[in-house]
Amino acid sequence: MYSQRKEQLQFAKRTLQFLEEEILRLTGEFKKLKTREHWEYPVFVRNHPLSIDLDLCTKQGFLGVFDTSITSDGFQTYVSRFLQDPNVPSLSDPSWIEGILKQRKYSFQLMRKFLVLDAEPNEKFEIPKIEQHADFWQKRKWLRWIFPIWGVITPVYLILGLLFDLPFLPLILLFNGLLFVSYRKESSILWKEIKTFSTTANRFKKTFLFLSKNRNVTKQMLKNITGLGDSSELLVSPLPHFVFNVIVLWDLWKIQSLQKWKSVHSQNWNELQDKIIQIDSVLPMLNFGFLNPEGNFAQMAMNGSLGSESIVHPLLPKSNRVFNPLPEMKPGDLMIVTGSNMSGKTTYLRSIAMSLLLAGSGAPVIGKGFVYPKFQIHTLIRSQDSMEDGVSFFYSEVRRLSSIIQDANSSQTIPILFLDEILKGTNSKERFIATREILSVLREKNCIVFLTTHDLKLAEIAWAKRFHFTELEKDGQMDFDYQIREGVSSSTNALKILKKEGIPIRNEDV
Fold first, then answer.
1. Which of 289, 323, 343 is the last residue of a domain?
2. Contact 354/333 with Cβ under 8 angstroms?
3. CA-based nearest residue to 204, from 189, 192, 221
4. pLDDT per residue over 101-134, tens digit each?
5. Which structural domain range is residue 363 located in?
6. How far apart are alpha carbons 360 and 404 in whole angstroms?
7. Helix axis angle, 250-291 relative to 141-164, nearest 10°?
8. Distance from C-alpha of 250 to C-alpha of 258, rounded to nearest angstrom
9. How does the average pLDDT of the chain come out, rounded?
């Protein structure tokens, strides 16, 4: 009763912690969440262009804030799918997440069963699959049939031998000791396997039972393996472990129990393992949808168009959200966004990109009427130089642009590009010529392109759709409404910002 009460109290404390974290996500207080450090992400995640350009792996980035996966395989599938890894299959049924979220109580139960674990924040666990390895008995067929008899005869003969001074007792114990040494290495591996399955069964007990179709069978499966796992505690003491094996062939009995458990329960265990990882891989999207009930699921556009009545960046606090429309964009279209510094140009691009990634992952989009094609996102928002490789910002951008163009050649989807002030590292004349030619090539490849720029000459490109953000004057101070407007920006604020920060501008005439 004491152990049961203690376990209930621990679960209640973990539940409380989980609810507190959910409230922080709900209220947008992301800085108070215990999220991953940038270096804690796998290399392929933190170095991915989307992660760099969209700030996905920062302390308050989307992956850190909404990553509620708990299995290593589930996390791997989730981030790979979110980052559009072509080697990871997309959701077979995109409406699956929507269906679960419509059952509000079921969705919350899923999160409770999965998220409330005795673990550190962001800790991931393995759920092993039962593999039918080469049978331990394959090389010892004779031992498989003899040891149950010999394992009973030995302790009986030992007792009788001590009582009646029977012969051969030392030889029998020596034989058993040598026999134990002969299979000790392999049995140690199997004991580790038993411990792994047992630990997993204890950790995910509630989850296994919650998702099981036959709870009684699953209960028996978990009970049997946890019982085997408890017996592995004997390995902590080498001498008693050796004595048990010499007397009753302890390891062989447990190996036989493991083999029997595998043969009886492998199908049920593996089915539940697959189901847990499958749900865990979409759990962050479920959690995101649960905390943002105002979100709406996007629709696939068969004509390849992209557009929305309104969108906003999902990480903006609800009190600070400013929704903007996304005019219909078709393959080959170009949108050029101009505007003052800090007016919202780059955030607008990131809002569109994040909405696409959410829609592509089956999650709801924060906005209304979002339609999108089968797409592949490419971003060039934050270029990085490399002292080690001797690569400048300009050359880094050129290599990225070349890679994007090459990818567009072989793409079976609509390439959607987000370019922020590209080719900054060269003079204005060459930058204009190069940018114009790059945009022409991308148009020929039926790419949808979003470009922000301060170069108003670029906005004169004939086929471009022109939009802008601007600053407002309020009581002599700069103010921003972050609303997108048609046309080209006619205002600038660079000199105003310099003056505000105490940098003297003595003559504004060119």
1. 289
2. no
3. 221
4. 988 788 888 888 888 787 777 889 999 999 876 6
5. 299-500
6. 20
7. 120
8. 13
9. 86
Work out the angle at residue 122's Cα, subtended by the Cα atoms of residues 365 and 319, and round it to the nearest 5 degrees: 40
Please give the structure tokens belonging to residue 305. Answer: 């168009």
Q: What is the CATH number of the domain that holds 402?
A: 3.40.50.300
Q: Which long-range contacts (CB under 8 A, 24 or more apart) does 256-259 make?
A: 256/144, 256/148, 257/224, 257/228, 258/190, 258/193, 258/194, 258/228, 259/135, 259/136, 259/137
- Convert the pLDDT of each residue in 243-252 to its tens digit: 989 999 999 9
Tell me, what amino acid is at 300?
Answer: M
Q: Could you tell me if residue 507 is inside a domain? A: no
What global pTM score does this model have? Answer: 0.86
- Tell me which H or E stretch contains 252: helix 250-291
Tell me the residue type at 382: R
**76 shares a domain with 147:** no
Q: Smallest Cα–Cα separation from 49: which of 357, 324, 342? A: 357
Measured over the CA atoms of residue 138, residue 139, residue 141 and residue 147, the dihedral's sign is negative
Q: What does the DSSP 8-state code read for residue 391?
A: B
- The secondary structure element, H or E, covering residue 386 is none
Bridge partners, residue 378, by sequence: 417
Angle at which helix 104-115 crosses helix 95-102, to 10 degrees, equals 100
Cα distance between residue 397 and residue 406, in whole Å = 14
